Amino acid sequence: MAREYVFISDLHMGGDEQLTALDFEAELLAFLADLEERGGDVELIINGDAFGLWEYAEVTGPAKLERVIEDHPRVFEQLRATGEEIDITLIPGNHDYDLACYPAHIDRLAEFNVTLEPVIAITREVDVGDGADGSPLLWIEHGQQHDANNRLSDWGNPDALPVGYFVVQRIVAAAGRYSGRARGDWLRDIQSVAPMEELPRWLLSNYFYREMSPFLRAIVVPLLLFFNLTLLYLAGTILEVAGVVPSWLFTDNPVLHALGIADIVLELIIAINIVIIVVLLLLAIPLWLFRRDLSHTLDRFGVMLSGVRVGQGDQPFLNAARDVFESNPDVAVYVYGHTHRASLTKWGDRAVVNTGTWLKKLQHAETWFSRLPGVYAPSFRLNYFRIFPEGDRIVIEYEEIETDEPRDLTRFQRLVARRPPSAEPIPERTVIDPDGPLEVPQTAPEPDSGSGRKSVTADGDGSARADGIERD
C-alpha cells in the first residue's frame, strides 16, 4: 500500500476537432512534474473520465485512445516520467468506458507507467497506527453507476451503452466538429455546461451575445431594457383612464415632453413593446390550448409529455456512500467524481469526497437588467485531494492550483453580468478518526478487520461486488 494517495478526476482529454484542446495542459504538466520531483511512497489515482473517448465520432475502439495520445504527447510523456517515481492508477468513468472494454488498453497505458484497473470501483488501505490488520479503507469509484442516464448495465461490453453516450455523440461531439464555425470558440465549452438541461439557455445566451448580428442586437437591447418600463407605462395608462391617477403622470408628463427627440424615441420603443406584448398575449392563448389538447391526446395513448432529465444533484451518490459505509464498516472515506462538483462531506468520522473536474466551469450569472439573457461566467477550479495517515487518524487535504481566469466573455457580457455566487468552500485540512462513529440516519457498526487491495467488478446488473483480489 502507498503511504499517501492523491486524487484527481474528470480531465476529459480528447474529442473531435476543438474538443481536443486542453486548457489546463500547463497546470497538469506542472502538477505531474511536482509529483515526480517529490517521489516517495505516493499513488496518484485518477478516478474516471481521464479521457473523453465518447467525444469521438469518427474512430472506434482502441483507436480513440491512440488519438488522445497523438494529440497530447507532452501529457503522456510526463505521465511516463512521473510514473517512474510514483504509482499512477487509472479507473474508467463513463466517458472513457472503452478502457474497460478492450484489454489492449492495459498494456498500452502501461507503456506510460499508468496502471489501468478496468473495474467499477477499487479500495485502498490507509496505514494508520502500527499497520496491523484492520487498516481502514478508501472506497474509490467514478460514480456513473448511480446516474440513471450513464449506468452501464453490462460492464465490459462495448455495445451496452447508456443514453448518456448517445447524448454525447449527438450533441457534444457534434459541437466539437462545428465549433470552428462559431464567432469565437465558445461552442467547444459545451462539455462545461452542467446540468445538460442548461443547454437551451446556454445556447440562447451565446446566440444573443455572440452570434446575433450587431445591428439586430442594437435594436433588440433597448426594447428589452425598456420592457419593464413599458409594463409600468401600460399600468399607468390604465389607471389614468380609470381616473385613479392624473393624466399628467404618464401620457401628458411635462418632463418627458421636455426631452424633445428623446421623448419621441422613448415613445416609439414603448409602442413597439406594446405591440410585442399584445402579439405574445394573442399567441399565448392558442398555444396553451394546443398544448393542453396535445397532452390529453397523448395521455389517451399512454404517452407522457416529459423529457429525459439529464442533470442531477449529488444525492444519489451520497446515498451510495451511505450504503457503502453501512455494508463495509472498514471503509473510512468514499471517493467519487462524475458530477464535476468538488466537495467534501463529513459524517461524523467518515468522509465523502467528490474530486470535481479540471474542465472549465460555466456558472450562470444573472444580468443587471432582468430582460437580458443570463451570462455563463467561465472559471477554473483545478483541484486535488491528498489522503494520508497521521498517527492513528486519517488526514484529507484539499488544494486548488492557481491559474489565470479565462477571459472568454465579450465586453458587453462583462458589462451587464452580475458576479456569480462564490463556490462552496472546501476545508484545506480535514481529520477523521477511522474508529469513530458514522453519523448518518442509520449508524453503521464499528470497523472490523480487512486487508489487501481489492478490486470491484460489475455483476450483470451493474451492481458492484468486491472480488477480494490481493495485489502488491
Automatic annotation (TrEMBL):
MF terms in GO: metal ion binding; UDP-2,3-diacylglucosamine hydrolase activity
Highest taxon of the lineage: Archaea
Upper lineage: Archaea, Methanobacteriati, Methanobacteriota, Stenosarchaea group, Halobacteria
Keyword Cell membrane in annotation: yes
InterPro entries given in the database record: Calcineurin-like_PHP, LpxH-like, Metallo-depent_PP-like
Residue ranges crossing the lipid bilayer per the database entry: 215-239, 259-290
Pfam families the UniProt entry points to: Metallophos (PF00149)
Keywords: Cell inner membrane, Cell membrane, Manganese, Membrane, Metal-binding, Transmembrane, Transmembrane helix
Any single Gene Ontology cellular-component annotation: membrane
Region Disordered, annotated ranges: 418-472
Entries under SUPFAM superfamilies matching the protein: Metallo-dependent phosphatases
Source organism: Natronorubrum halalkaliphilum
Residues of the Calcineurin-like phosphoesterase domain: 6-144
Protein name: Phosphoesterase
Basic and acidic residues composition-biased segments: 462-472
